Structure of DUF559 domain-containing protein:
Amino acid sequence: MSFEEDLRLTATQYLSKLGNEFDRKIAMHLTLATLSFETTNQYSNRWNCFWVIGHLHVPFLHLSFYTEEVVKRLEEVFKILYPKDLDEDFWYLEITPQLSSAYEGWEEKAFCYLAGEGINNQASFDSSTYPMIPYDGMRFRSEAELEIMKSFLKRKDRLVFPLPLARCGPGRREPDFLICYQGKWGILEVISDHTHQSSIDDAERTRWFQKHNLVNIQEYAEDDCKTNPDRVVREFLSWISRQR
């Protein structure tokens, strides 16, 4: 790992340990950003030391979170944590958007999404920089999600909502699969590095669903969902049938 990654991790830990909601939300968003530094040719307040500017590269959809108050708080934290044994001092922080990774055919998929053509589930197009996978009028973020959906389609005794959008007031979340089986509701999550990038974010999302009495939530590893989707679905349905 690089110095920048070490400092970002330390800042995330520092903020998450303070116990207040404001700092915890900043820590959560920090897990999805990348950090770099630029050494200037201007001397700082210490003898023979230069000012350093931080550049925090954040997902485009998260730009609105980084208000003046949030940036000021991050600058305070970086000034505390930036090593004092270096010949440079942290100056201020700039927020810039991360560039999405282009892939072959993204224009057609983006056009179809924006036009609403042939797509009837509501997974966010911008929730991942990976190419979406269209299937039978739906779209998925990974092969593992697609295999789970195919397995559910083999069975006729359950109601399946793939990647639906859940709203309650201003809050919005996207479970991977919302299932109704034998009159009981549950969520099946397919855990992968690119669709579930933050354990803090996942924990907050689980609490949000449980707050609204959707308490039956099970997580499965991406590899298992991709290679053994039928077994995963059987286990999930067996588990949900035993819940109250």
